[in-house]
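FIELD: query
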Amino acid sequence: QVQLVESGGGLVQAGGSLRLSCVCSGRTFSIRAMGWFRQAPGKEREFVAAISGSGGSTYYADSVKARFTISRDNAKNTVYLQMNSLKPEDTAVYYCARRGDTTIVAGTESQAPRYAYWGQGTQVTVSS
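FIELD: result
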């Protein structure tokens, strides 16, 4: 049984930082690519960032590039999302997700159906 549990969300002022964590149960964490998505009220879920199983490849949405950093600690079965220079438009529920593959073919990182397991989400609110 694979379970994903996110934490680290909260309320922060614009320009501030937060670090989200996602702990993944299961013995195959280190060989599975992972990703973060977000969904704002009234909007569709959108891709934020992804990382390969080894951590050697990372991908970002243009809207967060240079502000957010995805990383992972396979010894702790945990993937992180460091979010800096937060903006009000970053306000959303952030979801961690696990893919069924190890490497990410460029161009597929944002395709939600490729992510087999999803967490419950953690709320991030950025005030102006």
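FIELD: remark
Residues 30 and 75 are 8 Å apart (CA to CA).
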